[in-house]
Amino acid sequence: MATVKGGSSKDGKGKKPHKNKPTSKKYSHYSGATKKKKTCPRCGPGNFLADHKTRLYCGKCHYTEFTDKS
Ligand SMILES: [Zn+2]
C-alpha cells in the first residue's frame, strides 16, 4: 500500500465532518418520564427486555418473561 497517507486530501475523502449521531437505542427508553419498557429483574435497571410478540426477553442473561394476553 503505497498510497498517500494523511488526512489532507483534495478529493474530500479524508476526515468526515463530525455528525451528532443519535444516542444508542437503549438510552432512548430513558427519554421522558414514561418508563414503558420493562427492565430485567436479574440484571437490574439499565437492561431492558426485548419486546417480542408473546414474551419479553433479556439478551444479557436470557431471562424470559411471557406476556400471554389471551
Ligand atoms: Zn437480564
Strand-helix topology:
Elements: H1 25-28, E1 39-40, E2 44-48, E3 50-51, E4 55-57, E5 64-66
Antiparallel strand pairs: 1-2, 3-4, 4-5
The structure holds zinc ion.
Short characterization:
The chain is mainly beta and 70 residues long. It has one helix and five strands.
Distance between the first and last residues' Cα = 63 Å
Largest sheet: 3 strands, antiparallel
What Rg is obtained from the alpha carbons, in whole angstroms?
21 Å
In terms of DSSP E residues, the strand content is 15-25%
What ligands does this structure carry? zinc ion
Estimated helix fraction: under 10%
Contiguous uncertain segments of 5+ residues: none
Helical stretch count? 1
Query: Which structural class do the helices and strands define?
Result: mainly beta
Output mean pLDDT.
78
Strand order of the largest sheet: 3-4-5
Secondary-structure element sequence? HEEEEE
Can you tell me the overall shape?
elongated
The overall strand count is 5
